[in-house]
Amino acid sequence: MKTLIVSAFPACGKSYYHAVGDKYETFSTKDSDSSLFSWIIGTDGESTGVRNPEFPSNYIEYIKSNIGKVSFIFVSSHKEVRQALEHNNIQYVTVMPYPDTRKEWIDRCIQRGNDEDFITLLDKMWDNWTSFESQRQYNPSGRVFLTNKQYISDVIFTLDTYRDCIGVE
Prior knowledge:
It contains 8 helices and 7 strands; from the N terminus they run βαβαββαβαβαααβα. The protein is α/β, with parallel strands linked by helices.
């Protein structure tokens, strides 16, 4: 089975599609939460607030171990993750909101329960994270931009076309 790595911005619908979309579509997914790899997790299952020194290599190994098992692996859009994907010669596609959709994305993050620190960071870093200029520092095999009211579920067939062309087994 060909697998496409999809590096998607927060609130694009990765977790939702993984939970619901698999039931209605012919695509299987893996929703790989980078926080499970980037922080040291305590015995209570919660983050200790200490960065895992193995990140992002531990995350990349996890991604590699799931290639060929599902149609799509949804991964973080953190710069360290994209750099590690490129360093490991793993092709990926990005899914990002258009830069002019800031208000909707902040509202999405509030509605899904992100904490105030995250909302403040997103608002502060929005231009840096979403500008077309900032995206030029990465070399994905494809880019998909979401407009207002669009989610991964709205572009899944576009992503499937990328999977047919550049997916890995």
